Structures are given as structure tokens and as C-alpha cells.
Amino acid sequence: MKVFIMRHGEAVHYAATDEERELTPHGVEASLSVATACNNKGFAEFDKVLVSPYVRAQQTWQAVKSQFASDSVEVCDDITPYGQSEDVVEFVCALADVENLQSILLISHLPLVGYLTADFIGDSHAPMFPTSGLVCIDFDLSSRKGEMLWNLRP
After folding, report:
1. Each residue of 125-135: pLDDT tens digit?
2. CA dihedral over 84, 85, 87, 88, signed as positive or negative
3. Phi, psi (deg, nearest 5) at residue 152
4. Domain range summary for the chain, segments of one domain joined by +
5. Regarding the domain delimited by 2-138, which CATH topology (the fold level of the hierarchy) does it fall under?
6. What residue intervals traverse the membrane (predicted)?
7. Measured CA distances, 31 to 24, 46, 121, 133 (Å)
8. 69-100 per-position pLDDT tens digit
9. I want to staple 114 with a disulfide (CB 3.0 to 4.6 A). Which of 11, 41, 126, 136 is the partner?
């Protein structure tokens, strides 16, 4: 299956809470640019999309959804900045098995996006992600190992 992991777009530095930080205009533009590049690579449809409940992640999905299609978009409380990567990987694997997913997009935050990438690949260090960064991992559900196919940056 293909696992796509995207970091939210650039957000304002200050808000009443971290959860309420909104995207900047540049964050919207950069996210759309990366989504367009992903679409141009032939990846424009996902079996499932999981989005963090934080405002900046939700706004990122709103910015990119014109480039992507999915019949199943869900808010996932487990993919906030300090979610547990191992738990998220297990959750995604269970979803993939039960729902026969061939592709999934997760829109999340640092540091989790780096840890998820490392855990889906296996034997890898967590890479740094720029805002709006997107990776594509070819993941084998049975062996629980993957290979990064490409990495898009704004």
C-alpha cells in the first residue's frame, strides 16, 4: 500500500492555544503547490484521509482537497504533534487490513510526521519535514516495512 504523510502548511506563530494556530497565506499556497505536484505524479486519490483536529491541519486539508479525491476523510485525534507514532502505525495497519486500503494520506505535525516516516520505513532516522512537506512510502503490510518513493517540498 502507499502511505502518504504530509506536514501542515506554514502557520502563524501565536494563537490563544497551539491547537488554534491558523495557516498563513503562504502556508495555503505552499500546501496547494505540493498537492498539485503529488497529483502530477499520478497520485490524486486516497482510500482514506486522516487529518489532525488542529486548525492548521484542517486548513491544510481544505487547501489541498481540490487536488485529491477520497470517499473517506476523518479527523484523527492520534495524529497531533505529540501523538505516539507506534500506536498510529498499528492503527493504520489495522485500518488497512480491515478496510483493504491501498492508499492513505495523513496530515499531521512535527515531530510526529518524522517519527511516522521512520516507523513506516523501518530502520530509519526520523527526517525533518518542512511545512507542507509530503512523502510517499511504499509499505508492505505483511512485513511492516516500507521504502520511501519520493519526498516533495514546497
Report:
1. 888 899 999 99
2. positive
3. -100, 135
4. 2-138
5. Rossmann fold (3.40.50)
6. none
7. 11, 17, 23, 8
8. 998 999 999 999 999 999 999 999 999 999 99
9. 126
Which residue in this structure is represented by grid cell 520511501? 148
The rounded distance, in Å, linking the Cα atoms of 21 and 1 is 32
Can you list the positions of beta strands (E) in the chain?
A: 2-7, 45-46, 48-51, 69-70, 73-75, 103-108, 134-140, 145-152
The three grid cell numbers given for residue 63, joined into one nine-digit string: 487547501
Pairing mode, strands 69-70 and 45-46: parallel
Residue 40 has which C-alpha cell? 502530477
Hey, which residues does 70 pair with through a beta bridge? 46
Strands 134-140 and 2-7: antiparallel
